[in-house]
Amino acid sequence: MGQPAQHQEQHPGREYKMDPPPESFMEGYKPGGKLEGKVALVTGGDSGIGRATCIAFAKEGADVAFIYLEEDSDAELTKKHVEKEGRKALVIRGDVSKKKFCESAIEKVVSNLGGLNIVVNNAALQFVQENLEDISEEQLRSTFETNVFGAFFIAQAAMPYLKEGDTIINTTSITAFRGSPTLLDYSATKGALMAFTRALSENLAKKKIRVNAVAPGPIWTALIPSSFDKDHVKKFGTDTPMGRAGQPDEVAPCFVFLASDDSTYITGQTMHPNGGTIIGA
């Protein structure tokens, strides 16, 4: 079953305008203190998978900073739910495609929260185009600068503060493995993040800093109604083996696992919350 037909003109979208709203507040989640004393940074933390991950980290005992582009109402709600768990929440508004901003954001996290242990590169843009030749240079640069350059800049800025046992987690996508005929540049960026994850994991292995990825399938987030037309939204996720789109709450536990000591022997790997699609690479 899909979602009610809907479309948003703003890009990225607004979660508070979605019908039904995504399940991103981790209600019913049973924490185990897996991240007590940790400090996490999540890019794109105002809504969707980023929001659910922020809240899950807070439930597990971490103080949480998150970066968002411009969706103030969504960001305020994420902050409220992190603080509801008794944890500190640091909200940073800005554009991860800018290196200087990423450096200043990391400095704010460390100075306000006392350190940094977990980095989640989750911020992303996607634009639908039917034909390769319709992708403008501006769109191509924007997509790569947000999705790939942002992850590089954040990771680079975080390196002086990360130490043994700390983690970097990149949000890639099922499109990195299967492609998408109308998300050509987005798929390419997610493939780049996959390679970045694998290469950086080897680069940092001797420092005992783990680097992994999560590759969601179709998840009901604000990117969907702001990217696709009403007819596509109505069918979104129905082609998965489970016959539905996933919820952010169903993805966030992957990030908790990869950020925690439950995954101390895992690096350079990818988790696939995708509704049953078999990925062989």
Write up what this structure looks like.
This protein has 281 residues and is of the alpha/beta class. It has a single domain, classed as NAD(P)-binding Rossmann-like Domain (Rossmann fold, 3-Layer(aba) Sandwich), CATH 3.40.50. The chain is 38% helix and 11% strand. It has 9 helices and 7 strands. Helix 3 (99-113) runs parallel beside helix 4 (137-158) and helix 4 (137-158) runs parallel beside helix 6. It starts with 38 loop residues before the first strand and ends in a 10-residue tail after the last strand.
TL;DR of this structure?
The chain is of the alpha/beta class. The protein has one domain (15-27, 35-271): Rossmann fold, CATH 3.40.50. The protein has helices at residues 48-59, 72-84, 99-113, 137-158, 175-178, 184-204, 223-227, 230-235, 252-259, and strands at 39-43, 63-68, 89-93, 118-121, 167-171, 210-214, 270-271.
Question: What structural keywords apply?
Answer:
281 residues; alpha/beta; 38% helix; Rossmann fold; 7-stranded parallel beta sheet
What CATH architecture do you see?
A: 3-Layer(aba) Sandwich
Form type: globular
CATH superfamily: NAD(P)-binding Rossmann-like Domain
Number of strand elements: 7
